[in-house]
Amino acid sequence: xxxxxxxxxxxxxxxxxxxxxxxxxxxxxxxxxxxxxxxxxxxxxxxxxxxxxxxxxxxxxxxxxxxxxxxxxxxxxxxxxxxxxxxxxxxxxxxxxxxxxxxxxxxxxxxxxxxxxxxxxxxxxxxxxxxxxxxxxxxxxxxxxxxxxxxxxxxxxxxxxxxxxxxxxxxxxxxxxxxxxxxxxxxxxxxxxxxxxxxxxxxxxxxxxxxxxxxxxxxxxxxxxxxxxxxxxxxxxxxxxxxxxxxxxxxxxxxxxxxxxxxxxxxxxxxxxxxxxxxxxxxxxxxxxxxxxxxxxxxxxxxxxxxxxxxxxxxxxxxxxxxxxxxxxxxxxxxxxxxxxxxxxxxxxxxxxxxxxxxxxxxxxxxxxxxxxxxxxxxxxxxxxxxxxxxxxxxxxxxxxxxxxxxxxxxxxxxxxxxxxxxxxxxxxxxxxxxxxxxxxxxxxxxxxxxxxxx
Length: 455
Ligand code: BES
Ligand code: ZN
Known about the structure:
- The protein has 13 helices and 18 strands.
- By secondary structure, the chain is of the alpha+beta class.
- The protein has 2 domains: 2-195 and 366-454, Zn peptidases (Aminopeptidase); 197-251 and 297-364, 2-Layer Sandwich (Alpha-Beta Plaits).
- Strands 1-2-6-3-7-17 form a 6-stranded mixed β-sheet, with helices on both faces. Strands 11-13-9-14 form a 4-stranded antiparallel β-sheet, covered by helices on one side.
- Zinc ion (ZN) is lined by residues 86, 119-120, 153, 180.
């Protein structure tokens, strides 16, 4: 075994301790109350990277949360890999459902429980620990490395695209490497070549100018809660197809060949359902569960409010009703166009008795990546060495909006070499990351750098 891999193995416990230190900082990007913690997270990461000997590390201020940018470019004649990740996390709510506090990392059965353990601090740190392993044994990493670690992924990366746009030269590279996706199972590795996009909107209906006594007014006043419920129910037909006019216009249909590939993947719908306490799946038309969750677009209510929510009963006819709605998008749907179509849909269906407020909150483009890219092969070889089996190539339903921007602004493809599991409970209570996978991810990052020669 090479000295580098040996170092990584021997220092596993220290690598876990470093991850724990970062996990203790509550870098929740969507809630302004955590802004100083997010800044502290960026500083910690930058100091840590400097401490392990990365040549040039900076914390870049933005209008939102800071970006950590680093470069280590020892070679004139080797390719450059741009490693992307995020140090921000989702809010920990509902905190009362955690078995251990979300920002007090807890180890149980070789698994680390904390918000961000998998998404994405644990996976991002694997690449930091990989370069550390080279430098610690007195070697240079075999490729040039640039690190772009942002603090706003979980709120749609508003500052990152402008940063990329104004630093095209600085970010020049041959490929982007990202670990922020999942594998099929503990021992079934995969490389993701497609991600869905996102259109996220908010609607609010206002009827009467104040909440009303439902006895005095009920029966003759149009109730926004009733109306919004009806409008939402009508967003899908009986085949679970979305009824918004033009919604599917730019969807590239799945080819027969793609559908065969989906059918051959080791995805077990019964297990997937069982883990979330369900026994039956609902998909659009005749699409399989795997197709429906990765290669078909969706529309889902993410939040819904109106009327009295407190203890007991209150006879009230609400003045307002609102909903947050997200659509996962597939190639070639455009997030802005979809938001406009949703707006037109709601405007057409809102009754004269009510006013509509519509907000487009944020969005991101879907991506499909060419699996014949040489870096894909290097990643597949690295994974095969670590896991003893070839990875499957797959598409996933989540979104990493900046991946489309890497292509659009820098012309770069991304290799999505993820080590999460669906069961890691990302965005949920008790998020966790298996420490075996942390070790394997570090080894895969090291081996990827050894394999990838740019050709
Ligand atoms: N790491 C996830 C994306 C992901 C999860 C991809 C699972 C593939 C499989 C990422 O951090 C995330 O949650 N992204 C958000 C983006 C949104 C807030 C713009 C998402 O998908 O909801
Ligand atoms: Zn993530």
